[in-house]
Amino acid sequence: MIEEISIIGGNGRNGEQEPVRSVKFKMGDVISIVGPTGSGKTTLINEIQLFADGFTPTKRKVLVNGLAPLQEYREDPSKNPVAAITQHTNFLSDLPVHDFLTIHAGIRSSSTVQAEGIVTETLSFANQLTGEPISRDSRMTELSGGQTRALLIADAVVIGNSPIILLDEIENAGIHRTHALDLLRKYRKIFIFVTHDPYIALLSDIRIVMRKGMMVKVLRSSEEERTLSKKIRIVDDVMHKLREKIRVGDQLMDEDLEVAI
Ligand SMILES: Nc1ncnc2c1ncn2[C@@H]1O[C@H](COP(=O)(O)OP(=O)(O)O)[C@@H](O)[C@H]1O
Ligand SMILES: [Mg+2]
Fold it and tell me: Which residues contact 27 (CB under 8 A, 6 or more apart)?
């Protein structure tokens, strides 16, 4: 059982030792990785997925429960406890959503009744993440970017039951992030977001700041930021409603923006 993972710091792009020497994530933690383009965010999450052991250019090491991770995590994809979702991740399937999920759930469950329950939970999870409802009969290849991302996340969380989930810059993909965080918090996992979304960053337990290929700072949200996140949520929900109105062809009114903050 994975209880925690640690990243032992290595070096930045120019060989300099990175300021953060180690950082630990526990089950149930939400982590954000922030920093400008090219600062090493994707590199860091790739190393988590690879269970780097000093063999990458950064020389970082990833420990599981304080020890070197099992070799099989790296060698056998079905044993890797990490699921990664990026802008480019896609389903390679043309099946209807329901059939695809049933096959996937069938591999993981002991009975068809159990599999059906998991499929229903996955679809309802995905539909809470995206504003565009996914029907069980839609073909996988016909899903929009937002629907695909929502289904990928739901699939990794519910069916895959992966203990560690990495999400690399998925914010502009039509995911309802305020709902997403509430939902994800119900599952005891390690969620690592590469994000610049203030709401996700402020509600994370740990915020890692990247620069020049290095982990330069580990921040925890201040009281002020926690309070601020509640206001950001209101703004976010308003923006979501505006988008919805535009999407269904309504016209916006001044009062749509009258927010109590
Ligand atoms: N510590 C490091 N040592 C060497 N190369 C690095 C390091 N961190 C990042 N890089 C390289 O820098 C480039 C940008 O990193 P990347 O992780 O893609 O940044 P980001 O995702 O923040 O845009 C990549 O080519 C990556 O291999
Ligand atoms: Mg990147």
Answer: 2, 3, 4, 163, 188, 189, 190
pLDDT at 173: 60
CA 245 to ligand 1 centroid distance, Å: 39
Q: Which residues, in sequence order, are CB contacts of 85 under 8 Å at separation 6+?
A: 149, 152, 153, 156, 165, 166, 167, 168, 170
57 lines ligand 1 (CB under 6 A): yes
Q: What is the number of the ligand closest to the CA of 86?
A: 2
Of 7-11, 84-88, 158-162, 208-212, minimum mean pLDDT range = 84-88
Q: Decide whether any atom of ligand 1 lies within 6 Å of the 37 Cβ.
A: yes
Question: Strands (DSSP E) along 140-188, which ranges?
Answer: 164-168
Q: Where are the beta strands (DSSP E) in the chain?
A: 4-8, 22-26, 30-34, 61-64, 82-86, 164-168, 190-194, 206-211, 214-219
Q: Do the beta carbons of residue 138 and residue 96 sit within 8 Å?
A: yes
**In this structure, what DSSP letter does residue 162 have?**
-
What angle, 0 to 180 degrees and rounded to 10, lies between the N-to-C axes of helices 145-154 and 112-129?
Answer: 130
Cβ atoms of 184 and 30 within 8 Å: the answer is: yes
Atom of ligand 1 nearest to the CA of 168: 21
* 84 token code pair: 């990664």
